[in-house]
Every structure is written in structure tokens, then in C-alpha cells.
Specification:
Strand content: 15-25%
Number of helices: 10
Structural class: alpha/beta
Strand order of the largest sheet: 4-5-8-9-11-10
CATH class of the largest domain: Alpha Beta
Number of domains: 2
Shape: globular
CATH architecture of the largest domain: 4-Layer Sandwich
Radius of gyration: 20 Å
CATH topology of the largest domain: Purple Acid Phosphatase, chain A, domain 2
Bound molecules: zinc ion
Length: about 325
């Protein structure tokens, strides 16, 4: 979003990073900024203040914006609340709009318009990266969405176009950290989806991690690689075991977890999808599922989990803190 400002911010911050934080921050910002020196120096103090500490990441997932239930106001309030934390980076976790999987072209247009307008209206001009969720995919349920499947924006294309992304999975560096955003949603049958990586993406991930072994790494996916949330409210306890849907956890978790074992620089794996906040530490990786900005799809708390986002401070040595943070939203009665 807001590409011009984003690039400006990036170039300033990258320049500061290149020179090191602190005293050199001011001159680096002046060099990189096209604006008058005084304004640049003031901003550089801000940047310097956050730069001298850890990298601040906001993980904002399941915003599910829609015309109803004041979802637009909620999303705007959340972005502004997040901006007040002075993050270096916001990563959205997917399910950005309420739903386009089963929605018509008209309804999908309305939702993306709201999403774009909220981010443009909000007081945040910094770095934003996006993750795709199942609800951001247009028309995979052809019957309900009244699509044919040969529309130019069918499937993931509409979201990619709207988010100015070339591909649904990507990697980048920020500060000392390496970030990998995965595309965790694949088609399953005619009307469904399943959590997994296609082989092509898994091979890309393998190569990307091999090429970045020295950087602490944060993985982001919409569907959790590892989560116990689907088990929490299982009603029966049949002797033969519980059934977990392949739509709520990565069905190829075994190969992904094995890959992380071969890449000890992977410290964090963030996800959404479940609208609940949970953390599992397993084999050196913290798997954190953050609750939803929309809570129970804008109807209040989802089980115990109220509307919020993940606030993370990432240290250069791979240590981090995570706080699930409410932004003060009160759902429409
Ligand atoms: Zn969701």
C-alpha cells in the first residue's frame, strides 16, 4: 500500500541501518530524505529512538473488513492504534476481507474498496507486507460466487493485484531479521481448500532458508504450521481419536517442522486463521497464533479471545517478546 511513502520510509530506514543506529541516524536520515533538514532531523530522532531498540513488528491478522458491523471503523481504529506503537513493520496475516471465496464480483469489489480505503485513511505510512488467507481468494466456490473460473482475477489474482504483490509467497530482510511470508492455502476439490505448501513453494522455502542461515528468521502463514487450537473445544473424546480438519492446520507440517530443525535460525512462526491466541514452543521455534482484529468476525470476542493484534519486539540475537494487544474495540451490539 501507499508505495511512494513506503519506499521513502524504506530508503531512510535502510540508510540508517547501513550507517548504524544512534548518533549517525540523523545524518543518514538527512542524506536519504528529500525533505527540509529540520523536519528530517525531527523524524530521525523518532526513527533513532525506535532504531536503538529492537525491531518492532505488528502482526495484524484476520481483519475481515466488510460493509456491516462497522468493520471499516474497526480496521481503521486498529491500524491507528498499531501506528501509535511506532512499529518498524506491519505484517498482515491474511483474511484481510470478510470473504471473497464464496462472494460475487460486486461483493468482493466492495470489500477490497473498504480495505484499501482504510489503509489509505489511516495514519500509518511505514512498511506493510501482506499475507493471503483463504477468504482473500476469489471464487474457489464457483457456485456460491457465481464465477466460471476463467475470470482474469479469479482465485488469488484479485488479492495479489490489490496488494501490489507478484506472488503469494515472498521473503525479505528488515533490520537483523529475515522474514518469510508463506501462501498456506491450496485448492482441495471443487469447493474447498487445504492448508499446505505446493512442492514448488516448499522447494523455494528450502532454498531461501539455506541462503539466509545467519539471520534470525520469522515465518508468517495464515494457516498455522503447528497449533493445538482445533483441539481445545472438541466435544467428544472418542477412543479412536479426534478428527482435525485439513483446513485448520498445515497438513504438511511434518516436512516443514523437519526443515526448521535443519535451520536453527528459524525462531518464530506466526499465524492467524483460528481467531485465538496461542503459543507453542517446540524444537526451538515459537509457533504463535494471534487472535483476530475482527474477534468473532466483528461480533465481539471469539471464545476467550478479544479483538487485537500481536506486538513483537525482535532483538538482533534472535530473542523476542510477544504481547497480544487489544486496540479498544467494542463490537456493535
Ligand atoms: Zn479469519
Amino acid at each position: 500500500m501507499r508505495r511512494m511513502e513506503e519506499n521513502q520510509t524504506l530508503s531512510r530506514r535502510e540508510a540508517i541501518a547501513a550507517f548504524g543506529a544512534g548518533a549517525l541516524g540523523v545524518s543518514a536520515a538527512v542524506l536519504a530524505s528529500p525533505r527540509p533538514a529540520r523536519a528530517a532531523a525531527t523524524r530521525a530522532l523518532d526513527a533513532g529512538a525506535s532504531r536503538s531498540g529492537p525491531l518492532r513488528l505488528i502482526h495484524m491478522t484476520d481483519t475481515h473488513v466488510q460493509p456491516e458491523r462497522k468493520a471499516y471503523d474497526g480496521l481503521l481504529a486498529c491500524i491507528n492504534h498499531a501506528a501509535s506503537q511506532k512499529p518498524d513493520l506491519i505484517i498482515t496475516g491474511g483474511d484481510l476481507i470478510m470473504d471473497s471465496f464464496e462472494a460475487t464480483e460486486k461483493r468482493t469489489t466492495e470489500q477490497w474498496d473498504l480495505f484499501t480505503r482504510a489503509w489509505k485513511s489511516a495514519g500509518y505510512t511505514g512498511d506493510v507486507r501482506h499475507t493471503l488467507g483463504n477468504h482473500d481468494i476469489w471464487g474457489w466456490n464457483k457456485k456460491k460466487s457465481q464465477t466460471r473460473g476463467d475470470e482474469a482475477r479469479w482465485g488469488k489474482q484479485w488479492a495479489l493485484d490489490n496488494l501490489h504483490m507478484d506472488r503469494a509467497w515472498h521473503a525479505f530482510d528488515k533490520g537483523a531479521w529475515h522474514f518469510v511470508v508463506l501462501d498456506s492455502v491450496q485448492p482441495d476439490g471443487d469447493t474447498g481448500y487445504i492448508g499446505r505448501l505446493q512442492d514448488e513453494q516448499f522447494e523455494w522455502l528450502t532454498a531461501d532458508l539455506a541462503a539466509n542461515r545467519t539471520k534470525p528468521t520469522c515465518i508468517v502463514s495464515h494457516i498455522s504450521i503447528l497449533t493445538a487450537t482445533p483441539l481445545i473445544d472438541m466435544k467428544d473424546k472418542p477412543r479412536e481419536g479426534w478428527k482435525v480438519s485439513g483446513g485448520v492446520v498445515m497438513t504438511d507440517m511434518a516436512r516443514i517442522i523437519k526443515l526448521f530443525g535443519e535451520n536453527p535460525q528459524v525462531k518464530l512462526a506466526l499465524s492467524g486463521h483460528m481467531h485465538r491466541n496461542e503459543r507453542i514452543d517446540y524444537r526451538g521455534v515459537s509457533y504463535i497464533c494471534d487472535g483476530a482484529v475482527s474477534g468473532n468476525w466483528w461480533k465481539g470476542a471469539h471464545y476467550e479471545c478479544t479483538e487485537g493484534y500481536g506486538l513483537l519486539d525482535l532483538h538482533d540475537d534472535g530473542a523476542f517478546t510477544h504481547t497480544y494487544t487489544n486496540y479498544g474495540w467494542k463490537a456493535e451490539a
